[in-house]
Amino acid sequence: MSLRPILIHPDPRLKKVCAPVAEITPEIRALARDMLETMYDAPGVGLAAPQVGVLQRLFVMDCVKEEGADPRPMVLINPEITWASEETAAYEEGCLSIPEQYAEVRRPLQVQMRWTDLEGATQEAAFDGLWATCAQHELDHLDGKLFIDHLGPIKRQLITRRMVKLKRERARAG
Ligand code: K2U
Ligand code: ZN
Questions:
Q1: Distance between Cα 109 and ligand 1 center (Å)
Q2: For 116-131, b where at least 16 C-beta lie within 10 A, e where not — what string?
Q3: 157, part of any domain
Q4: Whose CA is nearest to atom 9 of ligand 1?
Q5: Is the CB of 95 under 6 A from ligand 1?
Q6: Domain enclosing residue 88, as ranges
Q7: In a domain? residue 17
Q8: pLDDT given for residue 65 in this prediction
Q9: Distance CA 111, CA 99 (A)
Q10: How many distinct structural domains can be found in the chain?
Q11: How confident is the model at residue 97 (pLDDT cuts 50, 70, 90)?
């Protein structure tokens, strides 16, 4: 188990369309474990493989927020949305690759998804609320899309400029 560094926008790897996972290897299992550890440590409720520099189609999420409730870590490999509600909901989104920046994004309120789990079994489930928002946010990452790509150009550029400044400061601090 190890924490993986999270890439910060702008980074070309965050804009790539990721490749399907061809086989669930011990490396993929170790990656999923490290992604969950990195997500909980951040803390966050989701994390996609490209955010730790691996351009493959898998993400992890655990949107259980109730204090003391059992965590529900999920690993979704080659995930796809099979149905999305007409009804949408707006959520103040953030992103571990765009720290301290938040903006409202509107997405379908409910989604039905299909994916492969770590045991290689095909899973299907319906998500709503924060789970639905998070799953769509993570699936966007696998297609090289960030939540700021859902905003207007002015706000997107403002946030990007802040991230360029942050990366310059972090590089100077070493
Ligand atoms: O992909 C990521 O960067 C992880 C995000 C996922 C996420 C973003 C927006 C809305 C839901 C999920 C992190 O979890 S950002 C931290 C966070 C935590 C709780 C609620 C919203 C955002
Ligand atoms: Zn994100």
A1: 16
A2: beeeeeeeeeebeebb
A3: yes
A4: 93
A5: yes
A6: 12-173
A7: yes
A8: 85
A9: 26
A10: 1
A11: very high
Altogether, the residues listed in the chain come to a count of 174
- Select from 172, 174, 131, 168 the least CA-distant residue to 8: 168
Q: What's the whole-number mean pLDDT along residues 92-102?
A: 98
When pLDDT is averaged across residues 160-172 and rounded to a whole number, the result is 96
Asked if residue 35 has its Cβ within 6 Å of ligand 1, the reply is: no
Question: Measured in angstroms, how far is the CA atom of residue 121 from the centroid of ligand 2?
Answer: 26
The amino acid occupying position 119 is E
Atom of ligand 1 lying closest to residue 59 CA: 1
DSSP-derived 3-state class of residue 8: coil
Instruction: Give the Å distance between the CA of 101 and the centre of ligand 1.
Output: 11
Active site residue 92: no
CATH of the domain at 74: 3.90.45.10
In a domain, 1, yes or no: no
Backbone phi, psi, residue 43, to 5°:
-90, 155
Q: What is the DSSP string of 84-136?
A: E-S-EEEEEE--TTSTT--EEEEEESEEEEEEE-TTS-EEEEEEEHHHHHHHH
| Ligand 1 touching residue 101 (CB < 6 A) | no
Rounded mean pLDDT of 106-123? 98
- Nearest alpha carbon to residue 101 among 172, 158, 49: 158
- Ligand 1 binding pocket includes 99 (Cβ within 6 Å): no
Question: How far is ligand 2, taken at its centre, from the CA of residue 63, in Å?
Answer: 14
